[in-house]
Fold each of these.
Amino acid sequence: MNNNFNDLRAAVVGIGGVGGYIAAMLCKHYEHITLAARGSRKESLSQNGISMKSEIHGSFTAYPEKVTETSDIGAQDIIFICVKGFSVEQVCNELKEQVAANTIIVPVMNGVDNAEKIRKAFPKNIVLDSLIYISAFANEDFSISQVGTIAPLYMGTIVNDERHNAAVHIVNAFLKEAGIDCQIPADIEAETWNKYILNCSQNVITAYYDCDTGHIRENPERTAQFETLMDEAWSVAKAKNINVTQADIDELMRKFRYVFPATSTTSLQRDFHDGKPTELDMFSGYIIKEADRLNVPVPLTKELYTQLVKRI
Ligand SMILES: NC(=O)C1=CN([C@@H]2O[C@H](COP(=O)(O)OP(=O)(O)OC[C@H]3O[C@@H](n4cnc5c(N)ncnc54)[C@H](OP(=O)(O)O)[C@@H]3O)[C@@H](O)[C@H]2O)C=CC1
Ligand SMILES: CC(C)(CO)C(=O)C(=O)O
Protein backbone atom coordinates (compact mmCIF):
# COMPACT_ATOMS: atom_id res chain seq x y z
CA MET A 1 0.00 0.00 0.00
CA ASN A 2 1.32 3.38 -1.06
CA ASN A 3 0.94 5.94 1.73
CA ASN A 4 1.13 8.99 -0.52
CA PHE A 5 -2.59 9.61 -0.81
CA ASN A 6 -2.30 11.48 -4.11
CA ASP A 7 -0.96 8.32 -5.71
CA LEU A 8 -3.61 6.04 -4.25
CA ARG A 9 -6.10 4.49 -6.64
CA ALA A 10 -9.61 4.22 -5.25
CA ALA A 11 -12.91 3.15 -6.76
CA VAL A 12 -16.47 3.74 -5.63
CA VAL A 13 -18.95 1.08 -6.69
CA GLY A 14 -22.57 2.29 -6.72
CA ILE A 15 -23.03 6.01 -7.39
CA GLY A 16 -26.38 6.52 -5.65
CA GLY A 17 -26.92 8.66 -2.53
CA VAL A 18 -24.10 7.35 -0.34
CA GLY A 19 -21.64 6.36 -3.10
CA GLY A 20 -22.31 9.61 -4.92
CA TYR A 21 -21.48 11.66 -1.83
CA ILE A 22 -18.22 9.76 -1.23
CA ALA A 23 -17.34 9.77 -4.94
CA ALA A 24 -17.91 13.52 -5.33
CA MET A 25 -15.77 14.31 -2.29
CA LEU A 26 -12.95 11.99 -3.43
CA CYS A 27 -13.00 13.22 -7.05
CA LYS A 28 -12.81 16.82 -5.86
CA HIS A 29 -9.64 16.07 -3.92
CA TYR A 30 -7.80 13.20 -5.61
CA GLU A 31 -6.69 12.38 -9.16
CA HIS A 32 -7.01 8.61 -9.36
CA ILE A 33 -10.65 7.97 -8.59
CA THR A 34 -12.71 5.47 -10.57
CA LEU A 35 -16.50 5.38 -10.46
CA ALA A 36 -18.31 2.12 -11.17
CA ALA A 37 -21.78 2.66 -12.60
CA ARG A 38 -23.90 1.27 -15.40
CA GLY A 39 -26.30 2.31 -18.16
CA SER A 40 -27.21 5.96 -18.59
CA ARG A 41 -25.73 6.84 -15.17
CA LYS A 42 -22.35 5.63 -16.42
CA GLU A 43 -22.70 7.65 -19.66
CA SER A 44 -23.69 10.80 -17.81
CA LEU A 45 -20.91 10.55 -15.21
CA SER A 46 -18.25 10.02 -17.88
CA GLN A 47 -19.48 12.94 -19.98
CA ASN A 48 -20.42 15.44 -17.27
CA GLY A 49 -18.50 14.40 -14.14
CA ILE A 50 -20.26 14.12 -10.81
CA SER A 51 -22.27 17.08 -9.52
CA MET A 52 -23.25 17.41 -5.91
CA LYS A 53 -25.42 19.84 -4.00
CA SER A 54 -24.40 19.42 -0.38
CA GLU A 55 -25.67 21.32 2.64
CA ILE A 56 -22.24 20.75 4.21
CA HIS A 57 -19.85 21.21 1.30
CA GLY A 58 -21.79 23.41 -1.13
CA SER A 59 -22.43 22.77 -4.82
CA PHE A 60 -19.70 21.57 -7.13
CA THR A 61 -18.86 19.31 -10.04
CA ALA A 62 -15.83 17.03 -9.84
CA TYR A 63 -14.25 14.76 -12.41
CA PRO A 64 -13.25 11.14 -11.93
CA GLU A 65 -10.24 9.66 -13.68
CA LYS A 66 -12.38 6.85 -15.07
CA VAL A 67 -16.03 5.83 -15.18
CA THR A 68 -16.67 2.22 -16.02
CA GLU A 69 -18.61 -0.89 -15.11
CA THR A 70 -17.86 -2.71 -11.88
CA SER A 71 -16.32 -5.64 -13.79
CA ASP A 72 -13.79 -3.28 -15.41
CA ILE A 73 -12.46 -1.03 -12.62
CA GLY A 74 -8.93 -2.49 -12.75
CA ALA A 75 -6.34 -2.60 -9.97
CA GLN A 76 -7.28 -0.41 -7.00
CA ASP A 77 -5.82 0.24 -3.56
CA ILE A 78 -9.24 0.84 -2.01
CA ILE A 79 -12.72 -0.10 -3.20
CA PHE A 80 -15.75 1.46 -1.50
CA ILE A 81 -18.92 -0.57 -2.02
CA CYS A 82 -22.02 1.62 -1.71
CA VAL A 83 -24.88 -0.39 -3.16
CA LYS A 84 -28.14 -1.56 -1.63
CA GLY A 85 -27.97 -4.81 0.37
CA PHE A 86 -29.65 -6.85 -2.38
CA SER A 87 -26.85 -5.96 -4.86
CA VAL A 88 -23.88 -7.11 -2.77
CA GLU A 89 -23.58 -10.64 -4.16
CA GLN A 90 -23.75 -9.43 -7.76
CA VAL A 91 -21.15 -6.74 -7.08
CA CYS A 92 -18.82 -9.31 -5.51
CA ASN A 93 -19.17 -11.50 -8.61
CA GLU A 94 -18.44 -8.55 -10.88
CA LEU A 95 -15.40 -7.62 -8.80
CA LYS A 96 -13.90 -11.14 -8.80
CA GLU A 97 -11.29 -10.42 -11.47
CA GLN A 98 -10.66 -6.84 -10.29
CA VAL A 99 -9.66 -7.27 -6.66
CA ALA A 100 -5.89 -7.55 -6.21
CA ALA A 101 -4.14 -9.18 -3.24
CA ASN A 102 -3.55 -5.83 -1.51
CA THR A 103 -6.91 -4.17 -2.29
CA ILE A 104 -8.73 -2.92 0.81
CA ILE A 105 -12.52 -3.21 0.51
CA VAL A 106 -14.82 -0.91 2.46
CA PRO A 107 -18.58 -1.43 2.29
CA VAL A 108 -20.38 1.78 3.29
CA MET A 109 -23.92 0.54 3.73
CA ASN A 110 -26.61 -0.13 6.29
CA GLY A 111 -27.01 -3.67 7.62
CA VAL A 112 -24.85 -5.89 9.79
CA ASP A 113 -23.83 -8.75 7.51
CA ASN A 114 -22.57 -7.07 4.32
CA ALA A 115 -18.91 -6.95 5.36
CA GLU A 116 -19.18 -10.64 6.31
CA LYS A 117 -20.58 -11.53 2.88
CA ILE A 118 -17.74 -9.59 1.21
CA ARG A 119 -15.15 -11.29 3.46
CA LYS A 120 -16.48 -14.65 2.28
CA ALA A 121 -16.15 -13.57 -1.35
CA PHE A 122 -12.63 -12.16 -0.82
CA PRO A 123 -11.18 -14.17 2.10
CA LYS A 124 -7.59 -13.00 1.51
CA ASN A 125 -8.41 -9.29 1.41
CA ILE A 126 -8.80 -6.73 4.13
CA VAL A 127 -12.50 -5.91 4.36
CA LEU A 128 -13.27 -3.10 6.81
CA ASP A 129 -16.52 -2.35 8.64
CA SER A 130 -18.23 0.98 8.32
CA LEU A 131 -21.51 2.88 8.43
CA ILE A 132 -22.60 6.40 7.64
CA TYR A 133 -25.22 8.72 9.09
CA ILE A 134 -26.27 10.74 6.09
CA SER A 135 -29.29 11.76 4.13
CA ALA A 136 -28.30 11.70 0.47
CA PHE A 137 -29.90 10.71 -2.80
CA ALA A 138 -29.24 10.61 -6.51
CA ASN A 139 -31.47 12.83 -8.66
CA GLU A 140 -33.02 12.03 -12.05
CA ASP A 141 -30.12 13.83 -13.77
CA PHE A 142 -27.63 11.65 -11.76
CA SER A 143 -26.49 14.57 -9.64
CA ILE A 144 -26.30 13.97 -5.89
CA SER A 145 -28.07 15.84 -3.10
CA GLN A 146 -26.92 15.69 0.49
CA VAL A 147 -29.19 17.24 3.10
CA GLY A 148 -28.47 18.04 6.74
CA THR A 149 -25.51 19.52 8.51
CA ILE A 150 -23.64 16.35 9.45
CA ALA A 151 -22.59 13.17 7.63
CA PRO A 152 -20.27 11.20 9.94
CA LEU A 153 -18.82 7.97 8.60
CA TYR A 154 -17.72 5.48 11.27
CA MET A 155 -15.06 3.00 10.31
CA GLY A 156 -13.25 0.17 12.01
CA THR A 157 -12.56 -3.53 11.84
CA ILE A 158 -14.01 -6.49 13.68
CA VAL A 159 -10.87 -8.41 12.69
CA ASN A 160 -8.43 -7.25 15.33
CA ASP A 161 -4.97 -7.70 13.83
CA GLU A 162 -2.15 -5.38 12.81
CA ARG A 163 -2.94 -5.45 9.07
CA HIS A 164 -6.58 -4.57 9.57
CA ASN A 165 -5.92 -1.91 12.19
CA ALA A 166 -3.31 -0.27 9.94
CA ALA A 167 -5.78 -0.29 7.04
CA VAL A 168 -8.42 1.43 9.20
CA HIS A 169 -6.02 4.29 9.87
CA ILE A 170 -4.99 4.62 6.21
CA VAL A 171 -8.56 4.70 4.90
CA ASN A 172 -9.63 7.01 7.73
CA ALA A 173 -6.87 9.50 6.85
CA PHE A 174 -7.59 9.14 3.12
CA LEU A 175 -11.26 10.04 3.65
CA LYS A 176 -10.57 12.81 6.12
CA GLU A 177 -8.09 14.49 3.81
CA ALA A 178 -10.86 14.62 1.19
CA GLY A 179 -13.15 16.40 3.69
CA ILE A 180 -15.27 13.42 4.73
CA ASP A 181 -16.01 13.32 8.46
CA CYS A 182 -14.56 9.87 9.15
CA GLN A 183 -14.32 8.67 12.74
CA ILE A 184 -12.97 5.51 14.34
CA PRO A 185 -15.27 4.38 17.17
CA ALA A 186 -14.08 2.23 20.08
CA ASP A 187 -16.38 -0.66 19.07
CA ILE A 188 -17.38 -0.70 15.40
CA GLU A 189 -19.59 -3.76 15.85
CA ALA A 190 -21.68 -2.03 18.55
CA GLU A 191 -21.75 1.18 16.50
CA THR A 192 -23.01 -0.74 13.46
CA TRP A 193 -25.71 -2.50 15.47
CA ASN A 194 -26.72 0.77 17.07
CA LYS A 195 -27.62 2.19 13.70
CA TYR A 196 -29.06 -1.13 12.56
CA ILE A 197 -31.45 -1.17 15.53
CA LEU A 198 -32.62 2.27 14.42
CA ASN A 199 -33.07 1.03 10.85
CA CYS A 200 -35.01 -2.03 12.04
CA SER A 201 -37.41 0.26 13.90
CA GLN A 202 -37.56 3.69 12.25
CA ASN A 203 -37.22 2.45 8.67
CA VAL A 204 -39.73 -0.36 9.20
CA ILE A 205 -42.38 1.70 11.00
CA THR A 206 -42.20 4.59 8.50
CA ALA A 207 -42.42 2.12 5.61
CA TYR A 208 -45.35 0.33 7.25
CA TYR A 209 -47.37 3.52 7.72
CA ASP A 210 -45.86 5.16 4.62
CA CYS A 211 -45.18 8.36 6.51
CA ASP A 212 -42.42 10.57 7.88
CA THR A 213 -40.92 10.50 11.37
CA GLY A 214 -43.23 13.31 12.60
CA HIS A 215 -46.30 11.19 11.86
CA ILE A 216 -44.92 8.35 13.97
CA ARG A 217 -43.89 10.66 16.80
CA GLU A 218 -47.21 12.44 17.14
CA ASN A 219 -49.12 9.15 17.39
CA PRO A 220 -48.65 7.33 20.76
CA GLU A 221 -49.62 3.91 19.37
CA ARG A 222 -47.11 4.16 16.51
CA THR A 223 -44.43 5.48 18.87
CA ALA A 224 -45.04 2.46 21.13
CA GLN A 225 -44.65 0.16 18.11
CA PHE A 226 -41.42 1.94 17.20
CA GLU A 227 -40.12 1.28 20.72
CA THR A 228 -41.17 -2.38 20.57
CA LEU A 229 -39.34 -2.84 17.24
CA MET A 230 -36.25 -1.25 18.80
CA ASP A 231 -36.46 -3.56 21.81
CA GLU A 232 -36.87 -6.64 19.61
CA ALA A 233 -33.82 -5.80 17.48
CA TRP A 234 -31.87 -4.97 20.65
CA SER A 235 -32.82 -8.38 22.16
CA VAL A 236 -31.30 -10.05 19.11
CA ALA A 237 -28.15 -7.92 19.48
CA LYS A 238 -27.87 -8.93 23.14
CA ALA A 239 -28.35 -12.61 22.28
CA LYS A 240 -25.42 -12.21 19.87
CA ASN A 241 -23.32 -10.60 22.63
CA ILE A 242 -23.13 -7.27 20.86
CA ASN A 243 -22.38 -4.51 23.33
CA VAL A 244 -25.32 -2.17 22.73
CA THR A 245 -26.21 -0.66 26.10
CA GLN A 246 -29.38 0.79 27.65
CA ALA A 247 -27.71 4.22 27.33
CA ASP A 248 -27.33 3.64 23.56
CA ILE A 249 -31.01 2.76 23.24
CA ASP A 250 -32.01 5.79 25.34
CA GLU A 251 -29.91 7.96 23.02
CA LEU A 252 -31.64 6.51 19.92
CA MET A 253 -35.00 7.23 21.54
CA ARG A 254 -33.90 10.78 22.38
CA LYS A 255 -32.85 11.35 18.76
CA PHE A 256 -36.13 9.92 17.51
CA ARG A 257 -38.18 12.13 19.87
CA TYR A 258 -36.25 15.40 19.70
CA VAL A 259 -33.50 15.44 17.05
CA PHE A 260 -34.73 13.97 13.75
CA PRO A 261 -36.68 16.56 11.75
CA ALA A 262 -40.41 15.79 11.68
CA THR A 263 -40.25 15.63 7.89
CA SER A 264 -37.41 13.08 7.80
CA THR A 265 -38.23 9.90 5.96
CA THR A 266 -36.20 6.69 5.65
CA SER A 267 -34.69 4.81 2.73
CA LEU A 268 -37.05 1.84 3.26
CA GLN A 269 -40.14 4.06 3.32
CA ARG A 270 -39.01 5.85 0.14
CA ASP A 271 -38.26 2.58 -1.67
CA PHE A 272 -41.65 1.07 -0.76
CA HIS A 273 -43.40 4.31 -1.65
CA ASP A 274 -41.66 4.45 -5.06
CA GLY A 275 -42.21 0.75 -5.81
CA LYS A 276 -38.46 0.10 -5.94
CA PRO A 277 -36.58 -2.99 -4.67
CA THR A 278 -36.17 -2.70 -0.90
CA GLU A 279 -33.77 -3.68 1.87
CA LEU A 280 -36.60 -5.19 3.98
CA ASP A 281 -34.79 -8.55 4.09
CA MET A 282 -31.59 -6.88 5.23
CA PHE A 283 -33.52 -5.24 8.10
CA SER A 284 -36.49 -7.25 9.46
CA GLY A 285 -35.64 -10.40 7.45
CA TYR A 286 -32.20 -10.77 9.03
CA ILE A 287 -33.53 -9.92 12.52
CA ILE A 288 -36.19 -12.66 12.18
CA LYS A 289 -33.65 -15.21 10.92
CA GLU A 290 -31.29 -14.52 13.82
CA ALA A 291 -34.15 -14.31 16.36
CA ASP A 292 -35.41 -17.76 15.32
CA ARG A 293 -31.89 -19.20 15.47
CA LEU A 294 -31.32 -17.75 18.94
CA ASN A 295 -34.85 -18.33 20.31
CA VAL A 296 -35.57 -14.63 20.78
CA PRO A 297 -39.24 -13.58 20.42
CA VAL A 298 -39.74 -10.77 17.86
CA PRO A 299 -43.53 -10.84 17.25
CA LEU A 300 -44.03 -7.26 16.02
CA THR A 301 -41.04 -7.44 13.68
CA LYS A 302 -42.56 -10.64 12.21
CA GLU A 303 -46.02 -9.14 11.88
CA LEU A 304 -44.87 -5.97 10.10
CA TYR A 305 -42.47 -7.98 7.92
CA THR A 306 -45.32 -10.26 6.81
CA GLN A 307 -47.54 -7.28 6.00
CA LEU A 308 -44.78 -5.40 4.15
CA VAL A 309 -43.82 -8.47 2.08
CA LYS A 310 -47.40 -8.54 0.76
CA ARG A 311 -46.83 -5.06 -0.71
CA ILE A 312 -43.78 -6.10 -2.73
N1 LIG B 1 -29.15 7.25 0.99
C1 LIG B 1 -28.97 7.47 2.28
O1 LIG B 1 -29.21 8.60 2.77
C2 LIG B 1 -28.46 6.40 3.17
C3 LIG B 1 -28.24 5.12 2.69
N2 LIG B 1 -27.63 4.19 3.52
C4 LIG B 1 -27.33 2.85 3.04
O2 LIG B 1 -26.30 2.94 2.07
C5 LIG B 1 -26.45 1.89 1.10
C6 LIG B 1 -26.55 2.53 -0.28
O3 LIG B 1 -27.75 3.27 -0.29
P1 LIG B 1 -28.07 4.41 -1.35
O4 LIG B 1 -26.83 5.12 -1.75
O5 LIG B 1 -29.19 5.18 -0.81
O6 LIG B 1 -28.58 3.52 -2.57
P2 LIG B 1 -28.99 4.00 -4.04
O7 LIG B 1 -30.07 3.08 -4.48
O8 LIG B 1 -29.18 5.47 -4.08
O9 LIG B 1 -27.67 3.71 -4.86
C7 LIG B 1 -27.18 2.44 -5.12
C8 LIG B 1 -26.47 2.53 -6.44
O10 LIG B 1 -25.80 1.29 -6.65
C9 LIG B 1 -25.86 1.06 -8.04
N3 LIG B 1 -25.54 -0.34 -8.33
C10 LIG B 1 -26.19 -1.45 -7.95
N4 LIG B 1 -25.57 -2.54 -8.43
C11 LIG B 1 -24.51 -2.10 -9.14
C12 LIG B 1 -23.50 -2.73 -9.88
N5 LIG B 1 -23.46 -4.06 -10.00
N6 LIG B 1 -22.56 -1.98 -10.48
C13 LIG B 1 -22.60 -0.62 -10.40
N7 LIG B 1 -23.54 0.04 -9.71
C14 LIG B 1 -24.48 -0.69 -9.09
C15 LIG B 1 -27.25 1.47 -8.43
O11 LIG B 1 -27.26 1.67 -9.81
P3 LIG B 1 -28.55 1.42 -10.75
O12 LIG B 1 -29.33 2.68 -10.65
O13 LIG B 1 -27.93 1.16 -12.07
O14 LIG B 1 -29.28 0.24 -10.18
C16 LIG B 1 -27.41 2.76 -7.63
O15 LIG B 1 -26.94 3.86 -8.36
C17 LIG B 1 -27.70 1.11 1.52
O16 LIG B 1 -27.35 0.01 2.30
C18 LIG B 1 -28.49 2.13 2.35
O17 LIG B 1 -29.36 1.53 3.29
C19 LIG B 1 -27.19 4.52 4.76
C20 LIG B 1 -27.42 5.77 5.26
C21 LIG B 1 -28.18 6.75 4.56
C1 LIG C 1 -31.71 8.02 7.87
C2 LIG C 1 -31.69 6.67 8.54
C3 LIG C 1 -30.79 6.71 9.76
C4 LIG C 1 -33.06 6.37 9.05
O1 LIG C 1 -33.12 5.32 9.95
C5 LIG C 1 -31.23 5.63 7.55
O2 LIG C 1 -30.22 5.02 7.73
C6 LIG C 1 -32.03 5.29 6.36
O3 LIG C 1 -32.90 6.04 5.94
O4 LIG C 1 -31.75 4.20 5.80
Amino acid sequence: MRATKFFDRQEGAKGLAERLKKTVALVGMMGSGKTAVGTALARRLGVPFLDSDAAIVEAANMSIAEIFERDGEAFFRARESEVLARLLEGRVGILSTGGGAYLSAANRELIHRKGVALWLKADTELLWNRVKHKSTRPLLRTADPRATLEDLVARREPSYALAELTALAQPEYSIAEMVEVVVDVLKQREDVLASV
Ligand SMILES: Nc1ncnc2c1ncn2[C@@H]1O[C@H](COP(=O)(O)OP(=O)(O)O)[C@@H](O)[C@H]1O
Ligand SMILES: O=C(O)C1=C[C@@H](OP(=O)(O)O)[C@@H](O)[C@H](O)C1
Ligand SMILES: [Mg+2]
Protein backbone atom coordinates (compact mmCIF):
# COMPACT_ATOMS: atom_id res chain seq x y z
CA MET A 1 0.00 0.00 0.00
CA ARG A 2 2.70 2.45 1.04
CA ALA A 3 4.85 1.52 -1.92
CA THR A 4 1.96 2.22 -4.27
CA LYS A 5 1.39 5.62 -2.72
CA PHE A 6 5.07 6.46 -3.03
CA PHE A 7 5.00 5.41 -6.68
CA ASP A 8 1.96 7.62 -7.28
CA ARG A 9 3.78 10.59 -5.80
CA GLN A 10 6.73 9.99 -8.08
CA GLU A 11 4.44 9.95 -11.08
CA GLY A 12 2.90 13.18 -9.83
CA ALA A 13 6.30 14.78 -9.45
CA LYS A 14 7.18 13.75 -12.99
CA GLY A 15 3.96 15.38 -14.17
CA LEU A 16 5.13 18.75 -12.91
CA ALA A 17 8.11 18.60 -15.25
CA GLU A 18 6.07 19.07 -18.39
CA ARG A 19 6.87 22.02 -20.57
CA LEU A 20 4.24 23.96 -22.46
CA LYS A 21 5.59 24.86 -25.88
CA LYS A 22 2.60 26.66 -27.39
CA THR A 23 -0.09 28.88 -25.94
CA VAL A 24 -3.27 26.89 -25.48
CA ALA A 25 -6.45 28.86 -26.18
CA LEU A 26 -9.45 27.37 -24.38
CA VAL A 27 -12.58 27.77 -26.46
CA GLY A 28 -16.20 26.71 -25.99
CA MET A 29 -19.51 27.80 -24.57
CA MET A 30 -20.11 29.98 -21.53
CA GLY A 31 -20.02 27.76 -18.48
CA SER A 32 -17.77 25.13 -20.04
CA GLY A 33 -15.06 26.09 -17.53
CA LYS A 34 -12.63 28.05 -19.69
CA THR A 35 -11.88 30.58 -16.94
CA ALA A 36 -11.99 28.22 -13.94
CA VAL A 37 -10.16 25.28 -15.55
CA GLY A 38 -7.78 27.62 -17.39
CA THR A 39 -6.74 29.29 -14.13
CA ALA A 40 -6.03 25.94 -12.45
CA LEU A 41 -4.35 24.52 -15.56
CA ALA A 42 -1.95 27.47 -15.80
CA ARG A 43 -1.03 27.02 -12.15
CA ARG A 44 -0.57 23.27 -12.65
CA LEU A 45 1.80 23.88 -15.60
CA GLY A 46 3.53 26.89 -14.01
CA VAL A 47 2.72 29.23 -16.90
CA PRO A 48 0.94 32.59 -17.13
CA PHE A 49 -2.86 32.63 -17.21
CA LEU A 50 -4.62 35.03 -19.53
CA ASP A 51 -8.34 35.62 -19.96
CA SER A 52 -9.57 37.75 -22.84
CA ASP A 53 -12.71 38.83 -20.95
CA ALA A 54 -10.65 39.92 -17.94
CA ALA A 55 -8.28 41.86 -20.20
CA ILE A 56 -11.22 43.66 -21.88
CA VAL A 57 -12.77 44.49 -18.50
CA GLU A 58 -9.45 45.82 -17.25
CA ALA A 59 -8.84 47.98 -20.32
CA ALA A 60 -12.39 49.37 -20.43
CA ASN A 61 -12.80 49.62 -16.66
CA MET A 62 -16.33 48.31 -17.19
CA SER A 63 -17.96 44.91 -16.77
CA ILE A 64 -18.76 42.78 -19.84
CA ALA A 65 -22.47 43.44 -19.26
CA GLU A 66 -21.86 47.21 -19.14
CA ILE A 67 -19.84 47.10 -22.37
CA PHE A 68 -22.61 45.19 -24.16
CA GLU A 69 -25.21 47.60 -22.81
CA ARG A 70 -23.40 50.83 -23.58
CA ASP A 71 -21.48 50.01 -26.76
CA GLY A 72 -23.15 46.89 -28.17
CA GLU A 73 -21.94 43.43 -29.09
CA ALA A 74 -20.12 44.49 -32.28
CA PHE A 75 -17.97 46.90 -30.28
CA PHE A 76 -17.22 44.13 -27.74
CA ARG A 77 -16.23 41.72 -30.54
CA ALA A 78 -13.83 44.28 -32.01
CA ARG A 79 -12.15 44.78 -28.62
CA GLU A 80 -12.07 41.01 -28.14
CA SER A 81 -10.14 40.51 -31.39
CA GLU A 82 -7.64 43.23 -30.45
CA VAL A 83 -7.10 41.75 -27.01
CA LEU A 84 -6.66 38.22 -28.39
CA ALA A 85 -3.98 39.47 -30.80
CA ARG A 86 -2.17 41.21 -27.97
CA LEU A 87 -2.36 38.28 -25.54
CA LEU A 88 -1.15 35.81 -28.17
CA GLU A 89 2.00 37.91 -28.68
CA GLY A 90 3.17 37.38 -25.11
CA ARG A 91 4.84 34.48 -23.34
CA VAL A 92 3.51 30.97 -23.83
CA GLY A 93 0.62 30.38 -21.45
CA ILE A 94 -3.01 29.37 -21.04
CA LEU A 95 -5.45 31.75 -22.71
CA SER A 96 -9.12 31.49 -21.81
CA THR A 97 -11.26 33.10 -24.47
CA GLY A 98 -14.83 34.35 -24.19
CA GLY A 99 -17.45 31.95 -25.58
CA GLY A 100 -17.99 33.94 -28.77
CA ALA A 101 -14.34 34.49 -29.69
CA TYR A 102 -13.79 31.31 -31.70
CA LEU A 103 -16.77 32.00 -33.97
CA SER A 104 -14.77 34.57 -35.90
CA ALA A 105 -12.65 33.12 -38.72
CA ALA A 106 -10.07 35.86 -38.17
CA ASN A 107 -9.76 34.98 -34.48
CA ARG A 108 -9.49 31.27 -35.31
CA GLU A 109 -6.73 32.00 -37.82
CA LEU A 110 -4.85 34.10 -35.25
CA ILE A 111 -5.11 31.39 -32.59
CA HIS A 112 -3.94 28.67 -35.00
CA ARG A 113 -1.01 30.79 -36.12
CA LYS A 114 0.20 31.63 -32.61
CA GLY A 115 -0.95 28.66 -30.56
CA VAL A 116 -3.41 25.81 -30.44
CA ALA A 117 -7.15 25.77 -29.69
CA LEU A 118 -8.68 23.31 -27.25
CA TRP A 119 -12.47 23.00 -27.09
CA LEU A 120 -13.90 22.39 -23.63
CA LYS A 121 -16.94 20.47 -24.79
CA ALA A 122 -19.93 20.21 -22.46
CA ASP A 123 -23.58 19.39 -23.03
CA THR A 124 -26.34 21.97 -22.63
CA GLU A 125 -27.57 20.51 -19.33
CA LEU A 126 -24.16 20.96 -17.72
CA LEU A 127 -23.71 24.44 -19.16
CA TRP A 128 -27.14 25.51 -17.99
CA ASN A 129 -26.53 24.26 -14.45
CA ARG A 130 -23.38 26.36 -14.33
CA VAL A 131 -24.73 29.62 -15.77
CA LYS A 132 -28.39 29.74 -14.69
CA HIS A 133 -27.76 31.55 -11.40
CA LYS A 134 -25.40 34.13 -12.88
CA SER A 135 -26.38 37.46 -14.40
CA THR A 136 -22.92 38.24 -15.80
CA ARG A 137 -23.57 36.97 -19.33
CA PRO A 138 -25.53 39.53 -21.34
CA LEU A 139 -26.38 37.13 -24.18
CA LEU A 140 -28.50 35.10 -21.77
CA ARG A 141 -30.62 38.07 -20.66
CA THR A 142 -33.60 36.90 -22.68
CA ALA A 143 -37.16 35.84 -21.88
CA ASP A 144 -36.12 32.18 -22.07
CA PRO A 145 -32.38 31.95 -21.31
CA ARG A 146 -32.31 28.15 -21.38
CA ALA A 147 -33.73 28.12 -24.92
CA THR A 148 -31.23 30.82 -25.89
CA LEU A 149 -28.40 28.72 -24.52
CA GLU A 150 -29.62 25.67 -26.48
CA ASP A 151 -29.85 27.74 -29.64
CA LEU A 152 -26.32 29.15 -29.15
CA VAL A 153 -24.93 25.64 -28.58
CA ALA A 154 -26.52 24.37 -31.80
CA ARG A 155 -25.28 27.31 -33.85
CA ARG A 156 -21.79 27.44 -32.35
CA GLU A 157 -20.74 23.81 -32.10
CA PRO A 158 -19.66 23.56 -35.78
CA SER A 159 -17.18 26.39 -35.11
CA TYR A 160 -15.87 24.94 -31.83
CA ALA A 161 -15.40 21.62 -33.62
CA LEU A 162 -12.71 23.32 -35.75
CA ALA A 163 -10.42 23.38 -32.70
CA GLU A 164 -7.47 21.03 -33.05
CA LEU A 165 -8.01 19.51 -29.60
CA THR A 166 -11.11 18.64 -27.57
CA ALA A 167 -11.60 17.74 -23.91
CA LEU A 168 -14.96 16.48 -22.74
CA ALA A 169 -16.32 18.10 -19.56
CA GLN A 170 -18.47 15.83 -17.39
CA PRO A 171 -20.65 17.00 -14.49
CA GLU A 172 -18.89 14.69 -12.03
CA TYR A 173 -15.42 16.12 -12.72
CA SER A 174 -14.11 18.70 -10.28
CA ILE A 175 -12.04 21.57 -11.65
CA ALA A 176 -8.86 19.73 -10.58
CA GLU A 177 -9.99 16.55 -12.36
CA MET A 178 -10.84 18.51 -15.47
CA VAL A 179 -7.32 19.95 -15.42
CA GLU A 180 -5.93 16.39 -15.57
CA VAL A 181 -8.28 15.53 -18.46
CA VAL A 182 -6.94 18.55 -20.35
CA VAL A 183 -3.32 17.72 -19.51
CA ASP A 184 -3.83 14.20 -20.93
CA VAL A 185 -5.20 15.69 -24.15
CA LEU A 186 -2.30 18.15 -24.41
CA LYS A 187 0.22 15.35 -23.84
CA GLN A 188 -0.95 13.70 -27.05
CA ARG A 189 0.80 16.55 -28.81
CA GLU A 190 4.57 16.66 -28.21
CA ASP A 191 4.67 20.03 -29.99
CA VAL A 192 2.26 21.45 -27.38
CA LEU A 193 3.14 19.79 -24.07
CA ALA A 194 6.51 18.09 -23.89
CA SER A 195 7.61 15.82 -21.04
CA VAL A 196 11.02 16.95 -19.83
N1 LIG B 1 -15.16 21.20 -13.49
C1 LIG B 1 -15.89 22.03 -12.76
N2 LIG B 1 -16.40 21.62 -11.61
C2 LIG B 1 -17.15 22.45 -10.87
N3 LIG B 1 -17.46 23.72 -11.21
C3 LIG B 1 -16.96 24.17 -12.35
C4 LIG B 1 -16.14 23.37 -13.17
N4 LIG B 1 -15.78 24.10 -14.23
C5 LIG B 1 -16.36 25.31 -14.07
N5 LIG B 1 -17.06 25.35 -12.93
C6 LIG B 1 -17.86 26.48 -12.41
O1 LIG B 1 -18.81 26.80 -13.41
C7 LIG B 1 -18.95 28.20 -13.53
C8 LIG B 1 -18.63 28.64 -14.94
O2 LIG B 1 -17.27 28.38 -15.24
P1 LIG B 1 -16.33 29.40 -16.02
O3 LIG B 1 -14.94 28.95 -15.80
O4 LIG B 1 -16.66 30.81 -15.67
O5 LIG B 1 -16.77 29.10 -17.52
P2 LIG B 1 -16.46 29.91 -18.84
O6 LIG B 1 -15.27 30.78 -18.60
O7 LIG B 1 -16.21 28.84 -19.86
O8 LIG B 1 -17.72 30.68 -19.12
C9 LIG B 1 -18.00 28.82 -12.49
O9 LIG B 1 -18.75 29.10 -11.33
C10 LIG B 1 -17.01 27.71 -12.22
O10 LIG B 1 -16.44 27.78 -10.94
O1 LIG C 1 -20.47 33.31 -25.39
C1 LIG C 1 -20.33 34.53 -25.53
O2 LIG C 1 -20.58 35.12 -26.61
C2 LIG C 1 -19.77 35.31 -24.40
C3 LIG C 1 -19.15 34.64 -23.38
C4 LIG C 1 -18.58 35.32 -22.20
O3 LIG C 1 -17.39 34.63 -21.76
P1 LIG C 1 -17.41 33.18 -21.09
O4 LIG C 1 -17.53 32.17 -22.19
O5 LIG C 1 -16.10 33.08 -20.39
O6 LIG C 1 -18.57 33.14 -20.16
C5 LIG C 1 -18.25 36.78 -22.52
O7 LIG C 1 -17.17 36.86 -23.43
C6 LIG C 1 -19.43 37.46 -23.12
O8 LIG C 1 -20.48 37.45 -22.16
C7 LIG C 1 -19.90 36.79 -24.42
MG1 LIG D 1 -14.78 32.82 -18.90
